[in-house]
């Protein structure tokens, strides 16, 4: 389960990219999507906050080593500390911590879909925080997407009487809203260092409080059964689906337009839902399928409307 915000770049105006870039981004989307069922499986053995801390801690170590080998490891400049704190605390700590707690109560298909409603909440956040009144297209995107969310979370599709079901859905929406605020910050931040060079510091800032909360609320990690299967899952979730995918997004995401990247990431919930059906036995009801289509259409409309507005 991994979410990475894409920063504006000098190459952002280019809508086209080579086949190699598209192939790498396809790998990234596939790995991100597969990380959701992998996370669900790991949660059978690891408490959610400890899993979040292990994920970002292991990913941070990998990126620190990667940057050190490249000779580009450096302490973040003072001008970039606001974005380091924003992404580390809101996007990584809040989104991932709440998301993993939610996944202990909500099926993976619903979790990945609600988590990726970020573009919809970005319209509302921009309106409330920066007085950017939404355009007609953004309002349409919001109406379509929220209708889909309503179907997914309706009493006809979701068992509200199940323990933690309502809390899980609320936590996922709060996480998506937190990520949307970070995206707005990213668009307005003037970058001094590259996003890749700041990534391990963001992950470190997320890891420390996550580990503290985990120790206080979930106890010592000594009770976690670290067998070979679990270690394989943790390796995939952290070093592969988090650090490696962050490198791919930083190196190749800047070579295509923001709209193209937003459209690309629509594949993540699709891969996550399909993988959850195949690997975890999740069922896709007609009502869920209708909500899925509405949310994806709303996200695509929101991305298109935002790109048109900025242009």
| Total helical elements | 12
What class, by secondary structure content?
A: mainly alpha
The profile of the biggest β sheet is: none
Strand content: under 5%
Shape type: globular
**Beta-strand segment tally:** 0
Please mark out the parts with pLDDT under 50 across 5 or more consecutive residues, or reply none: 6-16
Distance between the termini: 32 Å
The figure for the number of domains is 1
- The helix fraction, in percent, is over 70%
Domain EamA: 24-152, 167-302
Main location: membrane
Family: Belongs to the EamA transporter family.
Pfam family, one: EamA
Could you explain the architecture of this structure?
The chain is an all-alpha fold. It is built from twelve helices and no strands. It has helices at residues 19-42, 48-70, 81-102, 108-115, 118-130, 136-152, 165-188, 195-218, 228-252, 258-265, 267-280, 286-310. The chain has one domain (15-310). The chain is globular and about 45 Å long.
Summarize the structure.
It is built from twelve helices and no strands. The chain is mainly α and 311 residues long.
Key attributes of the depicted protein:
311 residues, mainly alpha, transmembrane, DMT family transporter, membrane
């Amino acid at each position: 389960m991994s979410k990475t915000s894409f920063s504006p770049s000098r190459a952002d105006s280019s809508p086209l990219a080579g086949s190699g870039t598209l192939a790498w981004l396809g790998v990234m989307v596939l790995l991100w999507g597969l990380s959701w069922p992998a996370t669900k499986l790991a949660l059978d053995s690891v408490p959610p906050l400890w899993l979040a801390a292990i994920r970002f801690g292991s990913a941070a170590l990998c990126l620190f080593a990667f940057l050190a080998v490249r000779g580009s490891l450096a302490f973040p400049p003072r001008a970039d500390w606001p974005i380091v704190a924003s992404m580390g605390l809101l996007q990584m700590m809040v989104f991932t911590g709440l998301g993993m707690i939610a996944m202990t109560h909500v099926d993976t298909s619903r979790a990945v879909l609600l988590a990726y409603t970020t573009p919809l909440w970005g319209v509302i956040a921009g309106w409330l925080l920066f007085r950017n009144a939404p355009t007609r297209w953004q309002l349409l995107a919001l109406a379509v997407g929220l209708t889909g969310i309503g179907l997914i979370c309706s009493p006809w599709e979701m068992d509200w009487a199940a323990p933690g079901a309502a809390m899980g859905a609320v936590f996922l929406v709060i996480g998506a809203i937190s990520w949307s605020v970070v995206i707005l910050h990213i668009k307005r931040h003037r970058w001094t260092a590259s996003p890749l060079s700041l990534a391990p510091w963001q992950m470190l800032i997320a890891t420390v409080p996550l580990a503290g909360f985990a120790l206080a609320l979930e106890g010592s990690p000594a009770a976690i059964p670290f067998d070979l299967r679990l270690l394989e899952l943790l390796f995939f979730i952290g070093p592969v689906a988090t650090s490696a995918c962050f490198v791919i997004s930083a190196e190749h995401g800047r070579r295509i337009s923001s709209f193209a990247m937003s459209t690309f990431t629509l594949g993540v919930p699709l891969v996550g839902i399909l993988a959850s059906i195949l690997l975890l036995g999740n069922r896709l009801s007609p009502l869920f399928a209708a909500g899925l289509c509405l949310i994806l259409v709303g996200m695509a409309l929101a991305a298109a409307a935002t790109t048109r507005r900025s242009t």
